[in-house]
Design brief:
Strand content: 35-45%
Number of helices: 2
CATH architecture of the largest domain: Sandwich
Shape: elongated
CATH superfamily of the largest domain: Immunoglobulins
Number of domains: 2
Helix content: 10-25%
Length: about 280
Protein backbone atom coordinates (compact mmCIF):
# COMPACT_ATOMS: atom_id res chain seq x y z
CA UNK A 1 0.00 0.00 0.00
CA UNK A 2 2.87 2.35 0.82
CA UNK A 3 4.33 1.77 -2.65
CA UNK A 4 1.01 2.60 -4.30
CA UNK A 5 0.71 5.80 -2.26
CA UNK A 6 4.23 6.85 -3.28
CA UNK A 7 3.41 6.20 -6.92
CA UNK A 8 0.25 8.32 -6.76
CA UNK A 9 2.15 11.19 -5.11
CA UNK A 10 4.87 11.00 -7.79
CA UNK A 11 2.31 11.15 -10.59
CA UNK A 12 0.62 14.16 -8.99
CA UNK A 13 3.95 15.96 -8.78
CA UNK A 14 4.60 15.28 -12.51
CA UNK A 15 1.17 16.62 -13.46
CA UNK A 16 1.67 19.76 -11.37
CA UNK A 17 5.04 20.27 -13.03
CA UNK A 18 3.58 19.91 -16.53
CA UNK A 19 0.78 22.33 -15.64
CA UNK A 20 3.30 24.85 -14.36
CA UNK A 21 5.34 24.59 -17.60
CA UNK A 22 2.27 25.29 -19.70
CA UNK A 23 1.46 28.38 -17.65
CA UNK A 24 4.99 29.65 -18.13
CA UNK A 25 4.87 29.38 -21.98
CA UNK A 26 5.39 32.72 -23.77
CA UNK A 27 2.91 33.15 -26.60
CA UNK A 28 3.87 35.45 -29.50
CA UNK A 29 1.34 38.12 -30.47
CA UNK A 30 1.19 40.59 -33.36
CA UNK A 31 1.34 44.11 -31.96
CA UNK A 32 1.14 46.28 -35.06
CA UNK A 33 2.91 48.04 -37.88
CA UNK A 34 2.64 51.12 -40.09
CA UNK A 35 1.45 51.59 -43.67
CA UNK A 36 4.31 51.98 -46.17
CA UNK A 37 5.10 55.56 -47.14
CA UNK A 38 5.23 55.83 -50.93
CA UNK A 39 7.45 58.25 -52.84
CA UNK A 40 7.63 58.97 -56.58
CA UNK A 41 10.97 60.34 -57.80
CA UNK A 42 11.12 61.81 -61.30
CA UNK A 43 14.48 60.80 -62.80
CA UNK A 44 13.76 62.02 -66.29
CA UNK A 45 12.49 65.50 -67.10
CA UNK A 46 10.39 68.51 -66.24
CA UNK A 47 8.98 69.27 -62.82
CA UNK A 48 8.70 66.57 -60.20
CA UNK A 49 4.98 66.21 -60.99
CA UNK A 50 5.26 65.82 -64.78
CA UNK A 51 6.93 63.23 -67.02
CA UNK A 52 7.03 63.84 -70.78
CA UNK A 53 8.26 60.56 -72.23
CA UNK A 54 10.09 60.48 -75.57
CA UNK A 55 10.77 57.39 -77.67
CA UNK A 56 14.31 58.59 -78.38
CA UNK A 57 15.08 58.23 -74.66
CA UNK A 58 13.68 54.70 -74.21
CA UNK A 59 16.67 53.38 -72.26
CA UNK A 60 16.89 56.30 -69.80
CA UNK A 61 15.59 55.88 -66.24
CA UNK A 62 12.27 57.67 -65.83
CA UNK A 63 10.65 56.98 -62.48
CA UNK A 64 11.97 55.67 -59.17
CA UNK A 65 9.19 54.42 -56.89
CA UNK A 66 10.20 53.99 -53.24
CA UNK A 67 8.39 52.90 -50.11
CA UNK A 68 9.19 52.34 -46.46
CA UNK A 69 9.18 49.07 -44.54
CA UNK A 70 5.91 48.64 -42.58
CA UNK A 71 7.91 47.34 -39.58
CA UNK A 72 5.59 44.49 -38.68
CA UNK A 73 6.07 44.03 -34.91
CA UNK A 74 5.37 41.13 -32.57
CA UNK A 75 5.87 40.72 -28.85
CA UNK A 76 9.31 39.36 -29.71
CA UNK A 77 10.21 42.46 -31.72
CA UNK A 78 10.21 43.44 -35.39
CA UNK A 79 9.30 40.51 -37.64
CA UNK A 80 12.14 38.80 -39.45
CA UNK A 81 9.73 37.32 -42.03
CA UNK A 82 9.81 38.50 -45.63
CA UNK A 83 7.33 41.19 -46.54
CA UNK A 84 5.46 41.02 -49.84
CA UNK A 85 4.76 44.24 -51.75
CA UNK A 86 2.28 44.81 -54.56
CA UNK A 87 2.62 48.05 -56.50
CA UNK A 88 -0.35 49.29 -58.53
CA UNK A 89 -0.81 52.04 -61.13
CA UNK A 90 -4.05 53.31 -62.66
CA UNK A 91 -5.54 56.44 -64.14
CA UNK A 92 -6.31 58.95 -61.39
CA UNK A 93 -9.59 58.29 -59.62
CA UNK A 94 -10.18 54.89 -61.23
CA UNK A 95 -9.68 53.07 -57.95
CA UNK A 96 -7.12 50.61 -59.35
CA UNK A 97 -9.90 48.65 -61.04
CA UNK A 98 -8.03 48.23 -64.33
CA UNK A 99 -7.13 44.54 -64.81
CA UNK A 100 -3.59 45.66 -65.70
CA UNK A 101 -3.20 47.95 -62.68
CA UNK A 102 -0.81 45.60 -60.85
CA UNK A 103 2.65 46.40 -62.19
CA UNK A 104 4.96 44.91 -59.56
CA UNK A 105 4.82 42.10 -57.01
CA UNK A 106 7.91 41.20 -55.06
CA UNK A 107 9.30 40.49 -51.62
CA UNK A 108 11.84 42.42 -49.58
CA UNK A 109 12.69 45.18 -52.10
CA UNK A 110 11.72 48.73 -51.15
CA UNK A 111 12.03 50.43 -54.51
CA UNK A 112 11.83 49.88 -58.26
CA UNK A 113 13.14 51.96 -61.16
CA UNK A 114 11.38 52.03 -64.54
CA UNK A 115 12.96 53.20 -67.77
CA UNK A 116 11.11 55.41 -70.24
CA UNK A 117 10.33 52.37 -72.39
CA UNK A 118 9.08 50.25 -69.46
CA UNK A 119 6.89 53.00 -68.01
CA UNK A 120 5.48 53.91 -71.41
CA UNK A 121 4.58 50.28 -72.15
CA UNK A 122 2.84 49.84 -68.78
CA UNK A 123 0.76 52.98 -69.30
CA UNK A 124 -0.19 51.94 -72.83
CA UNK A 125 -1.15 48.56 -71.34
CA UNK A 126 -3.80 50.38 -69.31
CA UNK A 127 -5.49 51.25 -72.63
CA UNK A 128 -5.23 54.97 -71.96
CA UNK A 129 -5.24 57.68 -74.62
CA UNK A 130 -1.59 58.28 -75.55
CA UNK A 131 -2.28 61.62 -77.24
CA UNK A 132 -2.78 63.61 -74.02
CA UNK A 133 -1.07 63.92 -70.65
CA UNK A 134 -2.62 61.68 -68.02
CA UNK A 135 -2.62 61.84 -64.22
CA UNK A 136 -1.67 58.46 -62.78
CA UNK A 137 -2.23 57.14 -59.25
CA UNK A 138 0.18 54.79 -57.51
CA UNK A 139 -0.14 52.79 -54.30
CA UNK A 140 1.70 49.92 -52.62
CA UNK A 141 0.21 47.19 -50.41
CA UNK A 142 2.32 45.20 -47.98
CA UNK A 143 1.55 41.82 -46.42
CA UNK A 144 3.57 39.45 -44.32
CA UNK A 145 4.65 36.41 -46.27
CA UNK A 146 3.09 33.09 -45.27
CA UNK A 147 3.07 29.52 -46.65
CA UNK A 148 -0.40 29.91 -48.14
CA UNK A 149 0.86 32.89 -50.18
CA UNK A 150 -2.40 34.70 -49.41
CA UNK A 151 -0.63 37.22 -47.21
CA UNK A 152 -1.85 38.67 -43.93
CA UNK A 153 -1.79 41.92 -41.94
CA UNK A 154 -2.16 44.08 -45.09
CA UNK A 155 -1.16 47.74 -45.06
CA UNK A 156 -1.99 50.08 -47.94
CA UNK A 157 -0.01 53.26 -48.56
CA UNK A 158 -1.48 56.63 -49.34
CA UNK A 159 -1.99 57.26 -53.05
CA UNK A 160 0.70 59.28 -54.81
CA UNK A 161 0.15 60.79 -58.27
CA UNK A 162 2.17 62.08 -61.21
CA UNK A 163 1.28 63.45 -64.66
CA UNK A 164 2.70 61.46 -67.59
CA UNK A 165 2.61 62.01 -71.35
CA UNK A 166 3.35 58.82 -73.26
CA UNK A 167 4.37 58.27 -76.87
CA UNK A 168 2.54 56.16 -79.41
CA UNK A 169 3.53 52.51 -79.81
CA UNK A 170 2.22 51.09 -83.08
CA UNK A 171 0.50 47.73 -82.68
CA UNK A 172 2.39 44.69 -83.94
CA UNK A 173 1.57 43.65 -87.50
CA UNK A 174 -1.13 40.99 -87.80
CA UNK A 175 0.05 37.41 -88.23
CA UNK A 176 0.33 36.05 -91.76
CA UNK A 177 -0.33 32.71 -93.42
CA UNK A 178 0.40 31.52 -96.96
CA UNK A 179 -0.47 28.43 -98.97
CA UNK A 180 2.10 26.74 -101.18
CA UNK A 181 2.45 23.49 -103.11
CA UNK A 182 1.60 21.74 -106.36
CA UNK A 183 -2.08 22.49 -105.72
CA UNK A 184 -1.29 26.22 -106.07
CA UNK A 185 -0.57 28.28 -109.23
CA UNK A 186 3.00 29.02 -108.02
CA UNK A 187 3.75 25.35 -107.26
CA UNK A 188 6.19 24.66 -104.42
CA UNK A 189 7.88 27.87 -103.25
CA UNK A 190 8.66 29.49 -99.93
CA UNK A 191 7.75 32.90 -101.37
CA UNK A 192 4.16 32.54 -102.59
CA UNK A 193 2.50 35.49 -104.36
CA UNK A 194 0.02 37.77 -102.57
CA UNK A 195 -2.88 35.89 -104.18
CA UNK A 196 -1.95 32.93 -101.97
CA UNK A 197 -1.96 34.87 -98.71
CA UNK A 198 -4.73 34.08 -96.23
CA UNK A 199 -6.97 36.76 -94.74
CA UNK A 200 -6.39 37.15 -91.02
CA UNK A 201 -9.72 36.83 -89.19
CA UNK A 202 -8.86 37.01 -85.49
CA UNK A 203 -6.26 35.69 -83.06
CA UNK A 204 -4.75 32.76 -85.01
CA UNK A 205 -7.66 32.19 -87.38
CA UNK A 206 -7.23 32.60 -91.14
CA UNK A 207 -9.19 31.87 -94.28
CA UNK A 208 -8.75 31.99 -98.06
CA UNK A 209 -10.99 31.16 -101.02
CA UNK A 210 -9.29 29.68 -104.08
CA UNK A 211 -9.54 27.11 -106.85
CA UNK A 212 -7.98 23.75 -106.07
CA UNK A 213 -7.18 20.97 -108.54
CA UNK A 214 -8.00 17.40 -107.58
CA UNK A 215 -5.60 15.16 -105.67
CA UNK A 216 -2.66 17.57 -105.43
CA UNK A 217 -0.71 18.58 -102.34
CA UNK A 218 -0.05 21.77 -100.39
CA UNK A 219 1.20 23.17 -97.07
CA UNK A 220 0.98 26.40 -95.07
CA UNK A 221 3.77 28.88 -94.26
CA UNK A 222 3.62 31.66 -91.69
CA UNK A 223 6.65 33.55 -92.99
CA UNK A 224 7.03 34.48 -96.63
CA UNK A 225 10.51 33.69 -97.86
CA UNK A 226 11.20 30.88 -95.37
CA UNK A 227 10.31 27.20 -95.25
CA UNK A 228 9.76 27.26 -91.51
CA UNK A 229 7.48 27.59 -89.64
CA UNK A 230 5.78 25.09 -91.95
CA UNK A 231 2.34 23.58 -91.34
CA UNK A 232 0.90 20.33 -92.69
CA UNK A 233 -0.69 17.14 -91.42
CA UNK A 234 1.00 15.00 -88.74
CA UNK A 235 3.55 12.67 -90.24
CA UNK A 236 2.30 9.19 -91.05
CA UNK A 237 -1.40 10.00 -90.66
CA UNK A 238 -4.20 9.45 -93.16
CA UNK A 239 -5.58 12.88 -93.96
CA UNK A 240 -9.16 13.86 -94.67
CA UNK A 241 -8.87 16.40 -97.51
CA UNK A 242 -11.85 18.30 -96.08
CA UNK A 243 -10.18 19.00 -92.75
CA UNK A 244 -8.48 17.69 -89.66
CA UNK A 245 -5.46 18.19 -87.40
CA UNK A 246 -2.33 20.12 -88.31
CA UNK A 247 1.27 19.82 -87.19
CA UNK A 248 4.17 22.26 -87.48
CA UNK A 249 7.91 22.36 -87.91
CA UNK A 250 8.93 25.58 -86.20
CA UNK A 251 12.51 25.06 -87.28
CA UNK A 252 13.46 22.63 -84.54
CA UNK A 253 11.97 19.39 -85.84
CA UNK A 254 11.14 17.61 -89.13
CA UNK A 255 8.59 18.87 -91.65
CA UNK A 256 4.99 17.61 -91.44
CA UNK A 257 3.38 15.79 -94.36
CA UNK A 258 1.68 17.67 -97.19
CA UNK A 259 -2.11 18.06 -97.24
CA UNK A 260 -3.99 16.43 -100.14
CA UNK A 261 -6.52 18.52 -102.03
CA UNK A 262 -10.06 17.09 -102.44
CA UNK A 263 -10.78 14.47 -105.09
CA UNK A 264 -13.14 16.91 -106.80
CA UNK A 265 -11.60 20.03 -108.29
CA UNK A 266 -13.40 23.28 -107.57
CA UNK A 267 -13.51 26.48 -105.53
CA UNK A 268 -12.98 25.97 -101.82
CA UNK A 269 -12.89 28.12 -98.72
CA UNK A 270 -9.97 27.01 -96.56
CA UNK A 271 -10.15 27.86 -92.86
CA UNK A 272 -7.09 27.45 -90.63
CA UNK A 273 -6.90 27.80 -86.86
CA UNK A 274 -3.31 27.69 -85.67
CA UNK A 275 -4.40 27.88 -82.03
CA UNK A 276 -6.33 24.61 -82.23
CA UNK A 277 -4.03 23.28 -84.99
CA UNK A 278 -6.88 22.42 -87.33
CA UNK A 279 -8.00 23.18 -90.90
CA UNK A 280 -11.34 22.90 -92.70
CA UNK A 281 -12.39 23.06 -96.35
CA UNK A 282 -15.84 24.05 -97.64
CA UNK A 283 -16.75 23.59 -101.32
CA UNK A 284 -18.42 26.70 -102.78
Amino acid sequence: MKNISKLIIALLLVLVGVSSCKKEENKIYYTGGTAPVLQLVNLYSGSSEHLMLLKADEDKPALNIKWTNPEYTFTTGVSSQDVNYVLEMDSSGAGFTNPNAKIYAQAIDLNVVYTVKELNAMIVNLNLDTSVEKKLDFRVTSTLKEPSAAGYFPFVSEIKSIWVKTYYIPPPPPPTLWITGEACPSNWTNAPPSSQQFTWISAKKFEITMDLPSSKYYKFLTKNGAWQPQWGIPKGTTADPMGGPLDVNDGTTSDPDAIPSPATAGTYKIEVNLATRTFKLTKL
